[in-house]
């Protein structure tokens, strides 16, 4: 310990500064690590979402291919599906009209109460 200089107060010269510098260097490194960890977690979450979307698209493509095979092997099915779709669209249109009518009636009743 002969080479270590002592301060008047009895402490070592320079030790506080060296420790402070090490801590100052460590804090940005810890922040960088935390930022990197968060970035990796976000990336994993995004990749999982993309994988789920790809799975959904794969299922849809599989059903589309299946439908194409069925339609080609049974042409009457195509006509039946068109009629079913037309009936569905007509039904939906009527439901929307009825819904608008109900809304108008309920607004009219509210205005009468006021």
UniProtKB/TrEMBL annotation:
Residue ranges annotated as compositionally biased, kind Basic residues, are 1-10
Tell me which stretches of the chain form a coiled coil.
33-60
Q: Where is the composition biased (Basic and acidic residues)?
A: 18-30
Q: Which BP terms does GO give this entry?
A: reciprocal meiotic recombination; spermatogenesis; synaptonemal complex assembly
Which InterPro entries does UniProt cross-reference here?
Synaptonemal_3
Which UniProt keyword terms apply here?
Answer: Coiled coil
Q: Cross-referenced Pfam families, in alphabetical order?
A: Synaptonemal_3
Gene Ontology terms, cellular component aspect? Answer: central element
Please give the residue ranges the record annotates as the region Disordered: 1-30
Q: What is this protein called?
A: Synaptonemal complex central element protein 3
Annotated organism of origin: Pavo cristatus
């Amino acid at each position: 310990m002969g080479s270590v200089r002592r301060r008047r107060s009895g402490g070592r010269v320079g030790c506080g500064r060296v420790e402070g510098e090490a801590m100052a260097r460590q804090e940005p490194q810890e922040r960088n690590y935390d930022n990197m960890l968060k970035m990796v977690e976000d990336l994993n979450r995004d990749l999982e979402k993309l994988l789920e979307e790809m799975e959904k698209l794969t299922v849809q493509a599989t059903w589309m291919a299946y439908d194409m095979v069925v339609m080609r092997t049974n042409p009457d099915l195509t006509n039946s599906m068109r009629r079913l779709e037309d009936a569905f669209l007509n039904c939906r249109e009527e439901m929307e009209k009825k819904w608008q009518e109900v809304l108008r009636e309920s607004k009219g009743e509210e205005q009468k109460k006021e």
